[in-house]
Structures are given as C-alpha cells and as structure tokens.
Amino acid sequence: MTQPLIVAVDDDPDLLAAVERELRNRYSPDYQICCLPSMDEGRATLQQQSAAGGDVALVLAAEELAGAPGTEFLGEVARYFPHAQRALLLGWGLLGAPAVGDAIFEAIARGRIDHYIVRPSVPPDEQFHQAMSTFLLAWAETRGRAPHTIDVVSETWSGRGYELREVLGRCAMPHRFCLAQSEEGQAILADVGERRFPILVMPTGHVMEDPTDADIARFSGAPIEPSGESYDLVIVGCGPAGLSAAVYGASEGLRTAVVDAGSIGGQATSSSSIRNYLGFPRGVTGADLARRAYQQAWVFGARFAFMQQAVDLSQEDGGLVLRLHTGGMVTARAVVLATGASYRRLGVESLEALHGAGVFYGAAASEAPLVSGEEVFIVGGANSAGQAAIHLAGYAERVTLVVRAAALGAGMSHYLVRQVEETPNIEVRTGTEVVDGGGNGRLDHLVLRDRRSGEEERVDAYALFLMIGAQPHTDWLPPTVERDDAGFVVTGSDLGDGALHALGRRPMALETSVPGVLAAGDVRHGSVKRVASAVGEGSVAIQFVHRLLAV
Known about the structure:
Layout: E1 5-9, H1 13-27, E2 32-36, H2 39-51, E3 56-62, E4 64-65, E5 68-69, H3 70-80, E6 85-90, H4 98-109, E7 115-118, H5 126-142, E8 150-154, H6 160-170, E9 175-179, H7 183-192, E10 199-201, E11 207-209, H8 213-219, E12 229-236, H9 240-251, E13 256-259, H10 286-300, E14 303-305, E15 310-316, E16 319-324, E17 329-337, E18 341-342, H11 349-352, E19 359-361, H12 364-367, E20 375-379, H13 383-393, E21 398-403, H14 414-422, E22 426-430, E23 432-438, E24 445-450, E25 456-460, E26 463-466, E27 471-472, H15 497-503, E28 517-519, H16 531-550
Parallel strand pairs: 1-2, 1-3, 3-6, 6-7, 8-9, 12-13, 12-17, 13-14, 17-28, 19-26, 20-21, 20-26, 21-22
Antiparallel strand pairs: 4-5, 8-10, 10-11, 15-16, 16-17, 18-27, 23-24, 24-25
Helix pairs in contact: 2-3, 9-10, 9-16, 13-14
C-alpha cells in the first residue's frame, strides 16, 4: 500500500518552508509530504493522486492564496478525497480576531474545512504537532486505520455479527466489519484459519470465536464480578453523567463502583462529532470523550462492572442494595442513577425485522464506512441526527434527513442547522415520517409519508439510521422511586407530597424520592438533553453525596 499524502499549499515561500520543515522531520516515515506554492499545483496533485488510486490524509492551506481565501481551495478537496482532513493555516497573531473567527465558523458550516491549525513556530513546536496528530487520527479512524482496531468477520450483516458491532460500539472500541466472503474477509481468514463465526480479531492477534458480551467486557478490562461488595457510592449507568460522577466521586476519596448493562459512553457514543463541548474546539466524538473519561475514573480508583444489568434497588439495614441480572449484588451508602435514555423504536414491523441489516438505531459512526456511495436516510431532528447526517455525508452518495417537525431548527442547534443546510449531499425533508419499508434480507426501500398531505412515496434506501425520541431506562426501578408519565425520574422540587413525607425534609436538587438515591443526566425529569449538561449534573451529584454521607 502506497503511503498517503500530506499536502500543504502556501504561496509565501518562507512560510511554506517552515511548514515543510516540520512535516518532513516528523511525518516522512509514514506519509508522503507534498508542499506546493500555488492552488493550481495543489489541484493538479489532488487530481493525479485520485486518478492513481492513492489517498490523501490531510491538506493544509494558507489563509490566503493568490488573493483568495484558502478555504475556497480546501473546499475543493472533498471532490477528490472526501475523507481527507482539511485545515486552514493561521498565523498566531490572527487568533481571537472576530472577522477571522467568523470566517472559520462559516467555512466549517459550509463543509469547506474541518478546522484550523496555528502555523509552526521555532522547533520543536509540539503544539503544532499535537494538532497535526489530532487531524491524522481523525483521518485514520475514517479509513479503518485507527490504532488498536478490532476486525469483526461474520457470514451475515445481521444476527450475532451485528450484535457484536453494537457491543464494540458501546465499549467505544475502534472496529471494522467485513463479510467472510468479501476480499477483506478472505484475507483475514487466510491468516487465522477456519473459525466459528462470527469472529473478532483483536489488535494483539488473539482471535475470539463467537464471544459472549461478558467475554468482550472481560477482554476490555472489566475486572469485577459483583458479589456483595460494599461501596460508598454505586453509580448505575456509564454514560457522560455516570462517568462524570465516577471521576469526581473516586477523585474525592469515595469508594466508587459503576455498573452498566452495556459499557462506556451510553447514547453519546453514537455522536460522531460534538462540536460545542467546552474545551474541544475541533469537536470530539462521543466514543473518544467516553474513553478519556473512563481512563480518568479508572486511574482515580473507580471500579467498573460492564454487561451487568441492574434489576432491583432496595433499602436494607440502613443501606442501599443493588441486585443484578447475573445474581450478583452490591451495597452502597449512596446511589446515583445515570442510566440515561435510548432511541425509541420506530414500531414499523417490516423495518424492525431488518434491524442490523440496513436498519440501525444510532450507530452512524461505526456503520458509516459500510454505506460508501449509497443512499441513506436518517430519522430524527435533534443534534445527534444532525451530527450523524454530517458524518455520513462524507461516505454516502446522498443523505436524507427525515424530520417530523415543520422546521429543522425546532430541535437542533443553530450551528448544526447551518452545517446541515450547507452540505451539498444532504437533503432535509421536514413534516415527513417513515411508515414502511423492506427488502429481501436487507433494506432496499422505504415508504415516506408527508404529514400535511398524507401522500406516500416509495424511495430506494440502502440504510436507515433511527435517532428519535428518548426512552428512559427506568423500568427496573421500584415504585418508591417517583417517575413522571414518560418514565423519567423526578428529583428535587418537582417531587410530590408523598416523596417529601418519605424524606422527612426538603430534598436536594438531584435527590429522588428514596433517601440516598440521586439521579443525573438524561434519565432525570426536566434535564437538558446535552452531553455537557449530563457531565455537569454528574459532578454536582457528588457534592450532594458528600452531604448525604455526612448526616
């Protein structure tokens, strides 16, 4: 395989020389370095590389080229290499300039660039290389070249093969999928020999044949099997709220355990790019954010039990007892409910039958490489649907976003609406719903209905990604935990008179109707369904835990 290109274009020879010096010194062993003095030469290089079947990992361009904005040239890159990262080279003195910030925001919204990078200073400029590594890792993940990637090989798209991809997605483990009869599958099987499908080929070379979810959890480092251990704090749920509570609880000296029916990240792992999360100007994937938070909590001393479903919560002998579907149990002085919510089912029988075979709940990040050059549809009008549309647009021929509401802005952030509207291969159909569909073993068509006229239309579809509504994971809770009509846990001042009587005092802001039990994140009635809000609630919950334990 020929080395992918890193291309830099700048018509100022001194500035270009500084960039070339840094690129060649650090990246020439693994990438071809191509530094060019004009847009025309840049275009010609991209055309030649595309015609030769090569690849381009990253394109850098000066803020201005031949009197025109460098974003214009970068906007042409996707025509030849849709997965290449594109960054505008900025001088340090331009940081913070309002007009420059506005131009960058506009270029990102229009899909012309991914972000900017500050020009290298006197070597060694590790800040420049940190940014470079971020761009190159983002490219590698889209091309299935991310470090520690797991290969999934199955005989079919659906069934256990799809379930394993879901499990790996919940574990935030980079993975790629191929059918056993494909060229890629045959190459893998030639190395590992005859196996029982589906198989996982781990980065270490270890092969797992039709592993259980528990096998994967143990391989990913979930060491405890709860059997009566006692903790200061048990957190149920390992999404952003639960991970935040784990980081703050463990770091502040509480003996902390986290239990989750899946693995890390919760619904956030389906977000391919969270651009408005504080401290990540380039954006961050939900999976990457979850991995970082998990590592923080682990090092602080939090313990994790994955693939362990909570089935009951009770008060016994002055403490709280959490029982699990495996028969295990843990006791705690305080519990934080952070079980989150999942996408609601569409309820169309013909499409539910194709779950994993072209019909997916979430999963836009992990399934994107499999829809290259195809027609795909997304149902949903919130930020997660918009993020999925942008991500899939880099792979699919066309993405259609199906929204029940009359306007896209009804449930989506303004910056994301702009980006969706400016992406040329995304079509938005408001006031529309999916009412039917099907295919012979795999999705091949959908039926859409205009909610105003009632008119129905059959359309070809290779994949359908469903991101609609939220169903809280609270069915397992006892009746003593007060919930609203939709099943979300009621806390604080929203609690009814009966709960106030049971507590015998005014409840704390995140406290439930059961003493010692708090709720944080999407599972809580009245919460703001945003990752940052869930993280904030998880950290605040620990302050209330300290107050409860001090009583």
